[in-house]
Structures are given as C-alpha cells and as structure tokens.
Design brief:
With 476 residues, the protein is of the alpha+beta class. The protein has helices at 55-73, 109-119, 168-179, 191-199, 202-207, 239-247, 253-263, 292-317, 339-347, 374-385, 435-464; strands at 3-5, 9-14, 18-26, 32-41, 47-48, 51-52, 75-77, 79-84, 90-99, 128-140, 143-145, 156-167, 184-190, 209-214, 219-225, 228-235, 276-278, 289-291, 327-330, 351-353, 392-394. The longest helix is centred in the last third of the chain and has 30 residues, at 435-464.
Length: 476
C-alpha cells in the first residue's frame, strides 16, 4: 500500500559517465543514513563536460536508476536534490553592507540575511542566473570577523561574497529532464560544493585545502581557507578524455574503460618496458598487443594537462603556498592506479584519496565506499543540515542495501577474473522504456517455461566452453 514518507532525502548526481541516486535520512551527530542506492552508466554522448547533450538518453539513465530504486527498495522518488556542473559555471565576488537595524547595535540573523539578499539584486550577464551566494569574509565597522557575526555589537555590517552563476539554459535542461520522469527539483547544488561537504573536516577548511572532484567530463575544483570558500573552478577535462586518447590508439570503445581500470597507471615510469597487453582478436584476425608502458604514457599525458590547469587555478586564487590541508581527490577518476603519487609529484602537496564516509552512519560506510558517491552524499548532507526532506512514497518494506548488487563495492581480484564479453547483449532488455523490452516480453511468453529452461541451459553450456577462461593475466 502506498504511503507518503517525509523522512527521506533523495539526491541525484547526473554525471558525464554515470547517474547516481542515493536516498538517505538524517541521523544523530549531523550524519546521514544511506537507505537506498542506484548507479547506472550513461550512454555515450548523454552528457558532455557536465552538460546535458542528449536529453532522451539522460532521461533514460535517470529512469533506469529510479526504476532500480523502486524495484529493490520499494521507494518512489517524487522530489530530489540535483547537482550542477559544467564549464559554464562562473565564480566572482562582490561586496556590500547594511546598517544594524536595532537600536542596541546587536547583529541579528535578519541583518545577515538582509546583507545576503542584497547580493541577489546585483546584475549578472544576460542569460545567467545566480546559483549560490557564499560569504568570504564579514566586517563589522571595518574590522574583519573570522566567525559568524550574529550577536556582535556594531553599527555597520559589511561583507564579501562569492557569487556563483550559471547559464539559465543549462539549468532549464535539468528541470526539463526531471519533469519528464515526474520528479520535482528540490534545489540545485554545485557539484564541487557538495563533494567538499562530503569529504572535508572543519580543520582542513581552516588550514586551507583544495578539493579536486575528478569526473568523467570535468574536474571541479573548490578551494577553502579560514573555513570559507575562496575559489571555485572547473577544468574541462575528465576521465572520458583519457578514454578518448586510448581509443585513438586503435582500441575498441567497449574495451577502453576495462583496459584503463585493469592495466592503466598514472605514472609511466613505474611500468617496465617488457610488459604487454594482449587485445582480443576480431573476427578470427590475429590479436594485437599493446605496451602497458605506452598505455600509462597516454594516461599520464592527459593527467599532465589536468594538473597544469589545477596549479593555474590555485595560483589565480591567490592561495598558492597557503593550503596546508593539501589536495583531496575524489570522484570516479580518483580510482585510477597511482593517481595519488602522480599528483604528489606534480603539485608538491600532500594528497589524499577521499571516499564520502566521514558523515554517514557506521552502518552506511560500506555502502558509499567509493569516490564516485561523493557528490550524491554531499547533496544529502546539505539538505539534512538545513532540516529539509524530499517527497517520496514508500511502496513496501525496503530490501537491505547489502543484498543488492553494487558495481562499485570492493571485490577480491581472484574472485572476479577479468574477461571481455564476446557476445554483446541489449543493455536495456529489462527496461520498459526500451524498444526491445516489449519484443523480449512477448518472446518469453511464447517460449513458456521450456523456452526459459532451454535458453538458460544453453547459456551454461556456452559458459563451460568459453575460450576466455584460459586467458592469462596480461590478456584483455
């Protein structure tokens, strides 16, 4: 029986490579409990550089992720918090002031809110809208204030604010996408802000730290100092650019990601010259070989582009040499082998690979044990900190998360031998929005029980003679 449930918060991270949906609820000590999770790989060209390129394809990915939530956890999402990324995002800072409204000269919350609201009246370029207004520093009677000014005594409150803007057309596309899956947008939050909330502690924000959210289409950069955001930037490169570079060397597109994950390395100097990867043959042609050092060199070259732009952003921010908290890497690209060592060499800063387990309940830590979840967890945390929830409907008793397949959960290497599927199947055969769904359903009805048994038995026989089982460790 359907019933409304107002305790849940839903977050949707629409990335270039994948769509991540998390559902959580507030727990003690400012934490969130993860109730449900779904990760769906996006079709190629669904998103590009963090922007929606093909609305039909991204809608399909969101539909599949929502359907997984309904099927596995019996929760229907009606409202969600969304992420925002892309090279169209800009960050500037403006200053303003207000006079203290009460006769005692005590700064009250309404004074701070009045100052912040005044910033929303500033003019922005045509076609852009203000997404966030974040304080950089407050002043009371021209004296800098390192903490919240509420309760202090003075006559004039002024401040500098980060004004974060984005193209209105890009945000409208997000709303159109969610409207087509019957989900309301509770709010839109910048990806870099959400990721930072999920992986940083206050001490790091005070000392100075830079967060690099390494996504598929972009790398979002957020710099903190004295507990305030000092600079935001977007690097227009990501994991898919590395994939494109690898594919240009004659590697099939469907093999590129697997090749990068299993054999890729961020430092070519760590790979011996004698190691080669044997690529699978095509149509009985002789198999090709690829030097593992060559693969690492391709990856390293693109990472050099990213690290150079990162250092440029740090210098532009004015906080070079003042970030004692170092560099925090998160996002799907942070899983690349030896990427931590690469950025230590290139930046000279201490580097940490971060998973978003700081502010989730102990029981939920294993459920988000990958950097890919950082943005979605951050969205939950931001909503929870404001005491907000989203509209959902509970359809039945949820299934425990640990009983559901999670493609990003850690697994033992020896238990999952790496092979490349020889037979390509329809990825959307179980999706009611796919054209092949109805055809497959009718075929199953026509075959009946014997047809299902026969298909399953033949599949087992094929698996028993699969030539991939004899592949060695250097085989793709």
């Amino acid at each position: 029986m359907e019933k409304n449930n107002n305790n849940y918060i839903a977050a949707i991270d629409m990335g270039t490579s994948s769509t991540v949906i998390l559902i959580g609820r507030r727990a003690d000590e400012g934490r969130v409990e993860i109730v449900a999770s779904s990760v769906v790989e996006n079709e190629r060209d669904s998103m590009w550089r963090g922007d929606i390129r093909n609305i039909d394809k991204i809608v399909l990915s969101v539909q599949r992720a929502l359907r997984n939530i309904e099927k596995e956890y019996y929760i229907k999402v009606q409202e969600a918090y969304l992420n925002l990324s892309g090279k169209h995002i800009k960050c500037d800072y403006k200053s303003g002031y207000v006079s203290i409204s009460n006769s005692e000269g005590e700064v009250r919350r309404e004074d701070v809110e009045r100052l912040s609201n005044d910033m929303r009246n500033i003019s922005v370029p045509a076609g852009e809208v203000i997404v966030h207004i974040r304080p950089r520093i407050y002043k009371l009677d021209d004296d800098n204030i390192s903490s919240e000014p509420i309760g202090m005594i003075g006559k004039r409150l002024s401040g500098e604010f980060n004004i974060i803007t984005a193209e209105k057309s890009k945000i409208d596309l997000i709303y159109r996408c969610l409207n087509r899956v019957d989900v309301r947008v509770a709010d839109v939050v910048l990806s870099s802000l959400a990721s930072s909330e999920a992986v940083l502690v206050d001490d790091q924000k005070e000392l100075g730290v830079v967060v690099l959210d390494f996504g598929g289409g972009t790398c979002d950069v957020c710099i903190y100092h004295d507990k305030s955001i000092r600079y935001l930037g977007v690097i227009p490169f990501g994991g898919l650019d590395i994939n494109s570079d690898i594919r240009s060397c004659g590697v099939l597109e469907r093999l590129v990601e697997r090749l990068k994950v299993k054999f890729g390395c961020a430092l070519s100097s760590e790979i011996p010259e004698t190691q080669y990867i044997r690529l699978p043959s095509i149509n009985n042609t002789p198999s090709n070989e690829m030097s593992q050092k060559q693969l690492a060199s391709i990856i390293e070259a693109r990472l050099d582009d990213i690290s150079e732009q990162l250092m440029h952003i740090i210098k532009k921010s004015g906080y070079e040499g003042r970030l004692a908290g170092g560099l925090v890497l998160t996002g799907g690209g942070a899983n690349l082998n030896m990427i931590k060592e690469f950025f230590i060499q290139r930046t000279g800063m201490p580097v940490r690979i971060a998973v978003p387990d700081l502010y989730v309940t102990p029981e939920s830590a294993d459920k988000v044990a990958s950097p890919i979840y950082s943005t979605a967890v951050g969205l939950l945390l931001i909503a929870a900190s404001m005491g907000r929830t989203t509209a959902t409907i509970s359809l039945a008793r949820p299934k425990p998360l640990d009983q559901v397949y999670n493609p990003y959960a850690p697994v033992a290497e020896e238990d999952t031998p790496f092979t490349v599927d020889q037979d390509e199947t329809d990825d959307y055969a179980d999706n009611p929005y796919s054209p092949s769904y109805e055809e497959g359903r009718q075929q199953q009805q026509h075959q009946g029980g014997f047809g299902k048994w026969f298909k399953k038995t033949i599949g087992k026989v094929r698996d028993s003679i699969d030539p991939d089982e004899s592949l060695e460790d250097n085989d793709l």
